[in-house]
Design goal:
Largest sheet: 2 strands, antiparallel
Shape: extended
Oligomer: single chain
Number of strands: 2
Distance between the termini: 44 Å
Strand content: 15-25%
Structural class: alpha+beta
Amino acid sequence: FSAAWRKAAREHETRYTRHRAVVAVAPYEDLGLVNVHFLPCNRVAVSAGATYPGRSDYPFHFPQKMQEPATCPKP
């Protein structure tokens, strides 16, 4: 890596943000995948188990591309 690349990387890192959320995990019976959905309005949904998005037994059915609404509901 060049000095210019390192400088650009440091400048880019100044725009990073960190987020933390504590959320319930959808009920599951078998160990398997963990899926994290980052949703509009700073919401997060988490599922675990042997199923995955697109299957009928998956607990969430979010659209592929969700738009951020003009105003978000209060938590």
